[in-house]
Amino acid sequence: MRDHLVAKVEATRLERDPFCHFYIEGIWPAAMYPEVLRSFPSSEHYVPLNLRKWVRPDGTSTRDECHLTVEMLARLPKAQAAFWSRVVRAMTDPALRRAVFAKLAPDLAERFGIPHEQVPDMECVYEVRLVRDTEDYRIKPHPDGLNKIVTMQLYLPEDESTLDLGTSIFRRHKRLIGGSFEEVKRFPFKPNSGYGFAVSDGPTRKSWHGRETLTGFKGVRHTLMLLFQRTSPHTYSDV
């Protein structure tokens, strides 16, 4: 799995407007993707991300998460835990980090003030979590906090019936008072696909992205978040 992921990242096209990002199809080995869909933990293993931000009028959460830590995996059935342990090991492998950082080197070099060739050797820690988004979930355009270095989100739908549910990236137009956002693109929410971008919040580059409200959506928008960060309250080294 690790070698497949690395090869996909290395082969994908880097887009630099309005900030460095990429979109990958076939990010999981084809034979493995059905197993991904069969292996989601039950909803009881997910917890609300933030009931102040992602909540319906009735007080229920619109975004729940399941961190794939050692403690969480120990609560899952044995076969399920073994599968997600394998996923976490691949996602946190140094070879994947190097490939991702090398791909996004232009923006990362600018942000951290280092030569491009040093970017793949940057150290990081991780967040690896499964996410469930449901009706009324939304998040306004934001660049992500600067604790994050790279954000990746892997899309996990069963079919192509919800292509419009992907994340959008934006360009901000400043005005004397206020401003507005232009949607540059929306990543298609295809099975076995995903995107990544270099987190930027400087004077020349800002990684604006977001998602409009999931209005009238009755299913679950399953994704896996892989975050490369400077610090993290979680550890995955023993998975």
Mean pLDDT: 93
SSE string, helix = H, strand = E? HEHEEHHHHEEEEEEEE
Strand content: 25-35%
Number of helices: 6
Query: What structural category arises from helix and sheet content?
Result: alpha+beta
Number of domains: 1
Uncertain runs are none
CATH architecture: Sandwich
Q: CATH H-level name... which superfamily?
A: q2cbj1_9rhob like domain
CATH class: Mainly Beta
**Could you say what the CATH topology is called?**
Jelly Rolls
How many DSSP E strands?
11
Cα(first) to Cα(last) distance is 16 Å
Cα gyration radius (Å): 18 Å
Overall 3D shape: globular
Largest β-sheet summary:
7 strands, antiparallel
Helix content: 10-25%
Biggest sheet: strand arrangement: 1-9-6-11-4-3-2
Give keywords.
alpha+beta; four-stranded antiparallel sheet; 22% helix; Jelly Rolls
Task: Please describe what this structure looks like.
- With 239 residues, the protein is an alpha+beta fold.
- It has a single domain (2-229), classed as Sandwich (Jelly Rolls), CATH 2.60.120.
- Helices cover 22% and strands 28% of the residues.
- The chain has helices spanning 2-11, 33-38, 70-73, 78-91, 94-103, 105-112, and strands spanning 21-25, 47-48, 63-67, 125-133, 139-142, 148-155, 168-174, 179-186, 193-198, 209-211, 221-229.
- Strand 7 (168-174) and strand 8 form a beta hairpin.
- The two termini are 16 Å apart.
